[in-house]
């Protein structure tokens, strides 16, 4: 018997109020990444009890990139001015149920080791699945309960207050930094090879990173063609705070960490 699908769930109601015809300036980019050795590193970690995944490693690499390679990306726009963030916070999107998405926010993600980061994400996932959501995520259900078209008006008011004017609303869990420095989502777990994400308009994230599915592909290694394990990373970047060169440096650093994941086992040096 076919299960009834709720096509008008809380997220869809909120999304209909959030999104409009895309007119904002964005930069899209993608890069293929050889993760053959990285998966071997992950397998070894899992044998030792650290349940790390590709999502963990790539999110950590993206966070450390904002610390050491492209600190310019750790910024947002308030009242027409670009403001540098005081810390690097990552928001990881996850699938809570068949059609219900949730998020886990990891503060100071650039300062964590592999074991620390993995443990925090695992705890965040457990809390989200138990229904213990952070205030920002919990706002979704409350906004979804507002009748149309008042839902749109409320969302516009919240966006203007927090994103445009930079006003913090602690009781609602909303501020200019509610969604962290950047967002990461793994669409590979959904069977998708590549995707170009929406740059969440009610957030101040400088970019959204998408991880595609792992696939075997012919790859040139030392001038020889070999079968390797490849993923595609896609990203949408806020053109107000960055340009193409910043995206290139971001991907370059993620590729560097994918070849040297052991660097994530120790605390980064101060800069």
Question: How does this structure look, described?
Answer:
This protein is of the alpha+beta class and 271 residues long. It has a single domain (26-264), classed as Chloramphenicol acetyltransferase-like domain (Chloramphenicol Acetyltransferase, 2-Layer Sandwich), CATH 3.30.559. The chain is built from seven helices and nine strands, in the order αβααββββαααββββα. It has helices at 10-18, 36-47, 54-68, 114-129, 135-144, 150-164, 244-259, and strands at residues 26-34, 75-78, 81-84, 90-95, 101-106, 182-186, 207-211, 215-221, 224-238. Strand 4 and strand 5 (101-106) form a beta hairpin. Helix 3 packs across helix 7 (244-259). The radius of gyration is 19 Å and the shape is globular. The model has no long low-confidence stretch (mean pLDDT 86).
Structural class: alpha+beta
**Average of the residue pLDDT scores:** 86
Overall, the morphology is: globular
Tell me the series of helices and strands, N- to C-terminal.
Answer: HEHHEEEEHHHEEEEH
Q: Tell me what the CATH architecture is.
A: 2-Layer Sandwich
Tally of helical runs: 7
What quaternary form is this? single chain
Radius of gyration equals 19 Å
Helix fraction by DSSP (H/I, runs of at least 4): 25-40%
Strand tally: 9
CATH superfamily: Chloramphenicol acetyltransferase-like domain
- Taking pLDDT < 50 over at least 5 consecutive residues as the criterion, the unreliable ranges are none
Number of domains: 1
**Major sheet size, sense and barrel closure:** 7 strands, mixed
């Amino acid at each position: 018997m076919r299960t009834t699908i709720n096509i008008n769930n809380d997220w869809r109601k909120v999304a209909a109020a959030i999104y409009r015809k895309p007119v904002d300036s964005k930069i899209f980019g993608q890069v293929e990444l050889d993760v053959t050795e990285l998966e071997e590193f992950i397998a070894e970690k899992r044998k030792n009890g650290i349940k790390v995944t590709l999502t963990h490693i790539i999110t950590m690499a993206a966070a450390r990139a904002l610390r050491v390679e492209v600190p310019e990306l750790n910024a947002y726009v308030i009242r027409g001015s670009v403001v540098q963030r005081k810390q690097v916070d990552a928001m990881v999107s996850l699938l809570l149920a068949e059609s219900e998405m949730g998020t886990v926010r990891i503060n100071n993600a650039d300062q964590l080791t592999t074991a620390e980061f993995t443990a925090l994400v695992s705890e965040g996932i457990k809390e989200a699945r138990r229904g213990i959501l952070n205030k920002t995520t919990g706002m979704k259900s409350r906004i979804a309960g507002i009748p149309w078209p008042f839902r749109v008006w409320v969302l516009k008011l919240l966006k203007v207050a927090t994103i445009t004017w930079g006003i913090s609303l602690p009781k609602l869990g909303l501020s200019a930094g509610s969604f962290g420095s950047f967002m990461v989502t793994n669409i590979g777990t959904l069977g998708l090879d590549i995707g170009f994400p929406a740059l969440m308009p009610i957030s101040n994230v400088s970019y959204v990173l998408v991880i595609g599915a792992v696939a075997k592909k012919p790859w040139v290694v030392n001038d020889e063609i070999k079968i390797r394990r490849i993923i595609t990373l896609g990203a949408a970047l806020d053109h107000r705070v960055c340009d193409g060169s910043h995206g290139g440096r971001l991907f370059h650093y993620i590729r560097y960490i994918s070849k040297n994941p052991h660097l994530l086992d120790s605390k980064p040096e101060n800069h």
